């Protein structure tokens, strides 16, 4: 059984201690060290490891005493977590295969028809966007992450958007759900809608992106820097960006529609947060990707733990995986 437990990610010492506790849930002080040939420090470290994996719980009679969680609950939750990790890894492999096919197709169609233009500096990016906008004939598609937009960003975008809409260009914009709580950005989005623009929101966005006439795409050069960008030209690369936009657009909620919760009591933000945390990201990164504060992230996590009746984040992740909430 020891080797089997190590397959769950337990250390040798933790495996031995857990098995011993299943046989004798409340051993006398020092008994485990004598029985297993482990030092007191090794036993304490094993206890901490088991508690972190939710394989130990506080006794109902004495909260200071830790008792083993039965395998039907504890190990089953670990198994679900492992299965979720494998599923995530399989999805990453599938995404890599899809990316390979896109790059291979683009290369096969002739590299001379594809080129990129790197932009460094906010002025360079805005100037290029203005030039592309002036040449736009039919459509502009945009991902706008980051939550509520600053006053300077709205002031810069307004005349450009107004000129596009006045020329009859179709303008589709996707913001984060969190902008619904930022009145200035909501007012700006409604202003777009009143002039013919289409605005939808989603819980999270993969990146900032602008696509012009489905022929050129402006994407981040460095995802960690907002003052760099790359302009992609070429059928294969831009087609992939368009497919990504169309996929996100089809699942987005029109700004005028109220966000709803599913029968489980979860909103789109809850599901997006589960996926972000499952990838091992911190609360800070989750807040940035959702366009909300860290305080809001902690509130959403608390709501998830209540809905899942979980006592720890790990247990919440395992139970979410059991219920297929991570897919």
Could you give the order of the helices and strands? HHHHEEHEHEHEHEEEEHEHHHH
Please name the CATH architecture of the largest domain.
2-Layer Sandwich
Round the Cα radius of gyration to an integer and report it.
Answer: 26 Å
Mean pLDDT: 81
> Could you give a short account of the major beta sheet?
8 strands, mixed
Number of helices: 13
Number of strands: 10
Fraction in helix: 40-55%
Q: Strand share of the residues?
A: 5-15%
Describe the model.
A hairpin with a 3-residue loop joins strand 7 and strand 8. The protein has helices spanning 2-6, 12-23, 31-36, 40-52, 74-108, 122-135, 151-166, 183-194, 235-251, 268-278, 283-290, 294-308, 313-322; strands at residues 56-58, 66-68, 115-120, 139-144, 170-176, 198-202, 209-212, 216-219, 228-233, 253-254. The protein is elongated, with a radius of gyration of 26 Å. The chain has three domains: 2-68, Orthogonal Bundle (Arc Repressor Mutant, subunit A); 74-89 and 260-322, Winged helix-like DNA-binding domain superfamily/Winged helix DNA-binding domain (Arc Repressor Mutant, subunit A), CATH 1.10.10; 114-254, 2-Layer Sandwich (Endonuclease, Chain A). The two termini are 31 Å apart. Helix 2 (12-23) crosses helix 4 (40-52), helix 5 runs antiparallel to helix 9 (235-251) and helix 5 (74-108) crosses helix 13 (313-322). It is an alpha+beta fold. The strands form two sheets. Strands 3-9-8-7-4-5-6-10 form an eight-stranded mixed beta sheet, sandwiched between helices. Strands 1-2 form a two-stranded antiparallel sheet.
């Amino acid at each position: 059984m020891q080797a089997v437990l190590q397959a769950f990610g337990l250390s040798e010492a933790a495996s031995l201690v857990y098995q011993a506790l299943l046989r004798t849930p409340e051993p006398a002080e020092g008994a485990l060290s004598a029985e297993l040939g482990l030092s007191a420090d090794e036993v304490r470290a094993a206890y901490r490891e088991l508690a972190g994996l939710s394989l130990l719980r506080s006794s109902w009679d004495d909260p200071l005493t830790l008792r083993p969680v039965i395998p039907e609950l504890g190990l089953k939750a670990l198994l679900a977590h492992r299965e979720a990790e494998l599923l995530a890894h399989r999805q990453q492999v599938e995404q890599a295969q899809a990316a390979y096919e896109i790059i291979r197709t683009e290369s096969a169609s002739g590299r001379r028809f594809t080129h990129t233009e790197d932009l460094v500096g906010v002025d360079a990016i805005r100037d290029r966007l203005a030039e592309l906008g002036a040449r736009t004939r039919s459509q502009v598609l945009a991902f706008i992450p980051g939550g509520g937009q600053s006053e300077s960003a709205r002031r810069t975008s307004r005349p450009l958007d107004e000129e596009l809409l006045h020329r009859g260009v179709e303008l589709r914009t996707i913001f984060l759900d969190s902008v619904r709580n930022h009145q200035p950005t909501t007012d700006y989005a409604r202003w777009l809608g009143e002039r013919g623009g289409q605005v939808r929101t989603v819980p999270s966005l993969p990146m900032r992106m602008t696509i012009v006439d489905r022929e050129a795409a402006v994407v981040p050069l460095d995802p960690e820097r907002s003052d760099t960008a790359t302009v992609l030209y070429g059928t294969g690369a831009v087609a992939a960006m368009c497919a990504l936009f169309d996929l996100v657009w089809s699942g987005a909620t029109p700004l005028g529609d109220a966000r709803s919760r599913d029968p489980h009591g979860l909103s789109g933000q809850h599901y997006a947060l589960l996926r972000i945390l499952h990838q091992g990201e911190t609360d800070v990164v989750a807040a940035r990707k959702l366009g909300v504060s860290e305080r809001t992230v902690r509130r959403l996590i608390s709501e998830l733990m209540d809905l899942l009746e979980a006592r720890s984040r790990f247990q919440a992740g395992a139970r979410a995986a059991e219920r297929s909430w991570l897919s």
